[in-house]
């Protein structure tokens, strides 16, 4: 029997894990706002990966003891324990299969984490910039560790996908540039007192990028040439558990994607007729909007417009559909650094809110942006989407655990909430304008198409007879690219970027639609249980204050609120 006095409870085990994890992964430490993390980068080598796995194993043993302690069966302890076990078990399954030894992605990899962390570092003081310089000097060693992992993957017969490799080499070319490169541009805003130091450190970091780029081009790309870009059912199921927090019935999920495709297509045709009567397809109407619809001109003007959109949403929703703390109401619109993937994204506030939540718009070289493609997306990334959920988690972390509010994030829970948030704004009447509503439906269609092509191409499933596209054939990445391009209002470079993203992050993209389904199912069950007494505002705030949950548990918890 464990000692009831000395043995920690599950939430204490989870918080001890966060402390140890951020020591091994100072990038996550910076995301959380831990000042001591600012000068270091993680060890991405095989040894560094094994250290993380050892921490997970040790934590699972400690959790088993903690669950036997009196008080561990309370709702707060139970939820935390369940999440911690599910997440660490899923992460260990990925590690033990050698997946981190083949991680090449245009959006989610050690390489991308190294660059992104600099955009989140404080840069107000000379001391802040000194930390930037020290971390820049650590870039080559961090990327060398990443290179060592990829090299071991090749030796063990675990290659990354050739399409992802080619894309990442192109990204590195852009980051390195022909002048001072991205790191040089970033440090140009530093104080003149540290000019020489920052220039030298930026050069060191850029040299690390160049060394990795050359190795990927000259050694790794030839070594993985001919390897499949798709992962097959076994690997896909493992990644599905990791991203979604559940063991999905993949064939049922594929069929659900198709049912949503047909439903959304019908709604899109109705809205398209309002914009361009007689349009053959909804995307013909969207192309008309690209030329003749409402646009924002200028990158900075677009950033300001998106900030105003989020501010207006907060003002309209607070007190009516949500009850928001003052610090949760602060969110910033930012322009994403060049050379990344095409998809907008969100970064969570630091634990003390000294760094607010931020939305990021990749411009892809454009300076003119159609409103139909912005509104629903910023309801997703900002308010009431990612920002309200993730900032609320941080706000109530003292009632949960640090783990539930930060490191224990389940992608499908968060992406599902954000897609649910888009639908909620439609339900609440914020998308009555035909342009904006067709843009919303196009975004919904993209998420349904993701389920179809992500599962379809990785599992090489048959395209069903009711499909308007190549019925009876089996999915390939080439067919997926064609299908996505035909059923999306987004430009070709966005579609190309998305396809590479799906190939490099199998099963992540399906969590948007399947997560939304879980949120809708939980809300409907709670509504039926309460009848006329159902309070949507109270339900939303309770749901957003639960912290992270996998889809295994999300519906049950939402239904009981």
Give keywords:
single chain; 561 residues; mainly alpha; 3 domains; three-stranded mixed β-sheet
Can you describe this structure?
This protein has 561 residues and is mainly alpha-helical. The protein folds into three domains: 1-97, no CATH class; 108-227, no CATH class; 240-511, no CATH class. It is built from 24 helices and five strands. Helix 9 (181-187) packs antiparallel against helix 10. It is globular. The two termini are 34 Å apart. The mean pLDDT is 96.
Give the gist of this structure.
By secondary structure, this protein is mainly α. It has helices spanning 10-24, 26-32, 46-66, 75-96, 110-119, 126-137, 139-155, 162-176, 181-187, 195-224, 232-244, 250-275, 282-292, 299-317, 375-381, 386-395, 402-405, 411-427, 434-459, 477-486, 492-504, 511-530, 536-544, 551-559, and strands spanning 295-297, 331-335, 345-347, 357-361, 368-370.
Biggest sheet character: 3 strands, mixed
N-to-C CA distance: 34 Å
Structural class: mainly alpha
What is the strand tally?
5
Oligomer: single chain
Shape: globular
Number of domains: 3
**Number of helices, where a helix is a run of at least 4 consecutive DSSP H or I residues:** 24
Order of helices and strands: HHHHHHHHHHHHHEHEEEEHHHHHHHHHH
Residue share in helices?
55-70%
Question: Unreliable segments (pLDDT under 50, ≥5 consecutive)?
Answer: none
Assess the beta-strand content as a share of residues.
Answer: under 5%
How would you state the average pLDDT, rounded? Answer: 96
**Biggest sheet strand line-up:** 2-4-3
Our Rg estimate from Cα atoms comes to 23 Å
């Amino acid at each position: 029997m464990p000692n009831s006095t000395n043995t920690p409870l599950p939430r204490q085990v989870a918080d001890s894990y966060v402390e140890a994890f951020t020591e091994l992964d100072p990038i996550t430490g910076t995301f959380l706002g831990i000042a001591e993390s600012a000068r270091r980068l993680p060890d991405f080598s095989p040894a560094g990966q094994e250290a993380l796995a050892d921490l997970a194993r040790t934590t699972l043993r400690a959790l088993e003891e903690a669950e036997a302690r009196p008080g561990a069966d309370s709702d707060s302890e139970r939820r935390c324990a369940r999440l911690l076990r599910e997440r660490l078990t899923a992460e260990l399954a990925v590690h033990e299969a050698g997946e981190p030894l083949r991680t090449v992605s245009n959006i989610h990899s050690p390489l991308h984490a190294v660059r992104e962390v600099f955009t989140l570092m404080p840069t107000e003081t000379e001391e802040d910039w000194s930390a930037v310089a020290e971390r820049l000097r650590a870039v080559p060693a961090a990327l060398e560790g990443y290179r060592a992992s990829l090299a071991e993957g090749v030796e063990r017969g675990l290659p990354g996908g050739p399409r992802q490799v080619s894309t990442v080499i192109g990204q590195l070319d852009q980051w390195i540039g022909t002048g001072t490169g991205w790191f040089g541009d970033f440090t140009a805003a530093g104080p003149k007192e540290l000019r020489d130091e920052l220039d030298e450190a930026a050069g060191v970091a850029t040299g690390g990028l160049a060394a990795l780029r050359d190795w990927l081009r000259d050694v790794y790309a030839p070594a993985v040439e001919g390897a499949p870009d798709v992962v097959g059912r076994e690997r896909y199921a493992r990644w599905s558990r990791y991203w979604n927090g559940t063991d999905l019935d993949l064939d049922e999920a594929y069929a659900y994607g198709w049912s949503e495709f047909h439903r959304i297509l019908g709604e899109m045709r109705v809205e398209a007729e309002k914009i361009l009567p007689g349009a053959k397809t909804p995307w013909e109407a969207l192309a008309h909007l690209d030329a003749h619809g409402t646009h924002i001109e200028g990158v900075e003007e677009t950033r300001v417009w998106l900030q105003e959109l989020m501010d207006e949403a907060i003002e309209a929703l607070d007190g009516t559909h949500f009850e928001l703390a003052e610090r949760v109401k602060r969110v910033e619109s930012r322009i994403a650094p060049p050379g990344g993937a095409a998809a907008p994204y969100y970064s969570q506030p630091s634990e003390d809110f000294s760094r607010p939540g931020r939305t990021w718009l990749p411009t892809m070289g454009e300076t003119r942006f159609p409103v139909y493609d912005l509104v629903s997306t910023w309801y997703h990334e900002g308010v009431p989407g990612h920002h309200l959920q993730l900032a609320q988690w941080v706000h109530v972390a003292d009632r949960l655990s640090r783990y539930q509010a930060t490191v224990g994030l389940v992608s499908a829970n968060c992406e599902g909430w954000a897609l649910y948030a888009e639908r909620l704004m439609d339900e609440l009447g914020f998308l009555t304008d035909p342009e904006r509503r067709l843009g919303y439906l196009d975004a919904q269609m993209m998420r349904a198409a993701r389920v179809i092509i992500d599962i379809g191409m990785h599992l090489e499933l048959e395209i069903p007879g009711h499909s308007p596209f190549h019925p009876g054939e089996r999915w390939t990445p080439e067919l997926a690219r064609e299908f996505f391009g035909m059923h999306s209002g987004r430009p070709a470079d966005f579609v190309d970027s998305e396809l590479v993203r799906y190939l490099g992050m199998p099963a992540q993209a399906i969590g948007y639609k399947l997560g939304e389904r879980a949120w809708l199912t939980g809300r409907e069950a709670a509504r039926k249980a309460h009848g006329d007494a159902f309070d949507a505002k109270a339900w939303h705030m309770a749901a957003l204050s639960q912290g992270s949950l996998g889809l295994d548990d999300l519906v049950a918890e939402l239904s009981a609120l």
